[in-house]
Amino acid sequence: MKLFGIEFASLFIPLDRRLQTFAVAQWFFNCLITPLICLIVIIASFFTPFMPLTIIYLLWIYLYDWKTPKRGGRRFDMIRRLKFWNYYRDYFPISLVKTEDLDPNQNYIFGYHPHGILVCSAFCNFCTEATGFSKKFPGIRPSLLTLVTNFYFPLLRGLLLALGACDVSRESVEYLLTKNGIGNAVVIVVGGAEEALDSRPEIFKLTLKNRKGFVKMAIKTGSYLVPCFGFHENEIFNQLSNPQGSSVRSIQEKFKKLFGISPPLFYGRGVFNYSFGLMPFRKPLATVIGKAIKIEKVENPSQKLLDETHQRYLDELTELFEEHKANYGIDSNKHLIFV
C-alpha cells in the first residue's frame, strides 16, 4: 500500500518475516541506540537508591574486567547458538561459503571486506552460529574484532563479549594469536571507519592499499592470512553523496579522528515501510572465505617482506573476488579498487 509516495508493509505479513525484522531491528538498536541509553541510565542511577550498585558495577569493570576484551574475550556458545540469530540470518538471507578446509592446528587472521555500513554479514557469520561456522570449519574459533569504544557501554559490552567479539587493538590480536592456544581466527574488518564512508551499491573501493598492520602481525606471529569477501555488503544501504574534499566529508573525517568512528549518512527501509528508514534492505548476502596464505614466522620482518606479503594478500583477494563475482550477479567489468 502506498501513501504520500511511501510504500507501507502489509498488515498480513507472515509471523516469521515479522520475527526476522525484529531480530535485525534489535541489533541495529544495540549498535546505534544502546550506548546512549547506557550512559543515560548510569548517570540517572546516581540520583536513585541504585547508586551503590552502579558504583560496584563500574568498579568491577575497571578493577577486574577492564582488559577482558584484550584477553580473548568471554564467549558463551549458548548465546552464539540462539535460534534468535537464525531470524537475523533469514532476513537478508546470509550465507557462508567455504573454498577450502582450514587446519585447526594453525592460527589465522581473516581480513574481511568490504566494511559496508555496519558489517551485517560479518556479524552473523563470525559472532553467531546461524550460518554454521563451527561445522564448516571444525576446531576454528572466530573472534570478530571491533572498536574498543564499543566495550565502554555495559549492555553492549556484555553482548559483544558473549558473542566472542574482542577489541581490535594490537594487544588483543597478539594475545589471541600467541597466548590463546591454536585454532584461533582473528577477524579484522581492515578498511574500518574510513572505508564505511565509501560504502555504496556497486562500488568496490577498499581502503587497503596502505593497511599493512594486519599483515605485519601475521608475519610476526606466523599466522596464516585468509581473505574474505562479503558480496552485497554495500548493497543493503544507500548513502548520501560525500565525495573527497566536500564539506560533509571533511566533517565526517574530523569526527572520525576525534572518536574513532565515522558517521556515514545512510538510509535504507523502515520497520513498517519499504521506502525510507534505518533498516537494511532485504538483499542476499554471501561471505566467501578464501584460501589460506601460508606465512612463515619472522619476528622482525623487513619492509621488503612486508610489502611482498601484502601484495600477495591483495592478489589473493582480487582472485577471490573475480572468481566468485559472477555467482552474485556482479558485472564482469566491475573490479576491486584499492585506495
> What structural class do helix, strand and pairing data support?
alpha/beta
In DSSP terms (H or I, runs of 4 or more residues), the helix count works out at 13
Which residues form runs of ≥5 with pLDDT under 50? none
Indicate the CATH topology: Glycerol-3-phosphate (1)-acyltransferase
Report how far the terminal alpha carbons are from each other.
43 Å
Average residue-wise pLDDT: 91
Based on CA atoms alone, the radius of gyration comes out at 20 Å
Helix content: 40-55%
Q: In the CATH hierarchy, what is the architecture at level 2?
A: 3-Layer(aba) Sandwich
CATH class placement: Alpha Beta
Q: Overall 3D geometry?
A: globular
What is the string of helix and strand elements?
Answer: EEHHHHHEEHHEHEHEHEHEEHEEHE
The number of strands is 13
Offer a few descriptive terms.
15% strand; 339 residues; seven-stranded mixed sheet; Glycerol-3-phosphate (1)-acyltransferase; alpha/beta; two-stranded antiparallel sheet; 13 strands
Structural summary, described in words:
This protein is α/β, with parallel strands linked by helices and 339 residues long. The protein has one domain: Glycerol-3-phosphate (1)-acyltransferase (3-Layer(aba) Sandwich), CATH 3.40.1130. It is built from 13 helices and 13 strands. The strands form 4 sheets. It has a 7-stranded mixed β-sheet, sandwiched between helices. A hairpin with a 2-residue loop joins strand 1 and strand 2. Helix 1 crosses helix 5. It is globular and about 55 Å long. The N and C termini lie far apart (43 Å). The mean pLDDT is 91.
